[in-house]
Amino acid sequence: MDLQAQPSRRLKASKDFIPFCRQIQETRAGRSACLECDCEAIRRLRDTRRPVLYSCHMGLLDLVVPLLIGGQLIGALAAGQFLLRKPARETFRALRNPIQTFGLDASLAEKHYLKVPVLTPAKTRAVVDLLALIADHLIKIEFKLDALRKHTTSNRFVARRNS
Questions:
Q1: Sheet containing 61-69: which strands, arranged edge to edge?
Q2: Does residue 2 lie within any of the structural domains?
Q3: What is the pLDDT of residues 76-135, one digit of tens each?
Q4: b/e 99-123 (16+ beta carbons within 10 angstroms → b)
Q5: Which residue range is the domain that position 28 belongs to?
Q6: Between vectors from CA 89 to CA 84 and to CA 94, what angle results, nearest 5°?
Q7: How, if at all, do strands 52-55 and 72-82 pair?
Q8: 101 Rama sector, left if φ>0, alpha if ψ -120 to 50, beta otherwise
């Protein structure tokens, strides 16, 4: 995710969303509401520079982990679309109004909602830790690639001067 909360088109195509979120994303209002939640998460990430676990407008959980280079926030790794408790019909009732406002089939949305993945708090922490490790690894690779580019450019310049 970049700092405008735009997902990588390559890494997060709509086909990668869980069916409930894919259904929401099919509407302009749903996409807009999702983007608003993601933008708020990025604002919080900018302030804290720490992983942010947040609830989206539909009550599902998402998380973002900062990508930092020299203390500078350059983006985020994101995961989500899960709940901490098993989804229930009673919980879905509160979502019926927004679902209908989006012009979606409420019975299909409920069917998808009841299949939303559930993660325990321990598994959620493990996902945060894993994303933090991946973020750290990506930054280390970027530093190595940058050093290699500089070294290669420097060697070309020396080779040209000597010829």
A1: 52-55, 61-69, 72-82
A2: no
A3: 898 999 999 999 999 999 999 999 999 999 999 999 999 999 999 999 999 999 999 999
A4: beebebeeeebbebbeebeebeeee
A5: 14-162
A6: 85
A7: unpaired
A8: alpha
Among candidates 142, 138, 139, 140, which has minimal Cα distance to 150? 142
9 is a domain residue: no
Asked if pLDDT for residue 29 goes beyond 60, the answer is yes
Residue with tokens 């973002």: 64
Identify any residues that bridge with 66 across adjacent strands, giving them in sequence order: 76
* SS3 category, 140: helix
Residue 153, classified by CB atoms within 10 Å of its CB into exposed (0-12), middle (13-18) or buried (19+), is exposed
Q: What is the pTM of this model?
A: 0.80
* Domains contained in the chain, number: 1
Cα dihedral 128, 132, 134, 140 in deg (nearest 10) = 180
How many residues are there in the chain? 163
Domain assignment present for residue 132? The answer is yes
Q: How many CB atoms lie within 10 A of CB 61?
A: 18
DSSP annotation string for 61-107: EEEEEEEEETTEEEEEEEEEEEBSS---HHHHHTTHHHHHHTT--HH
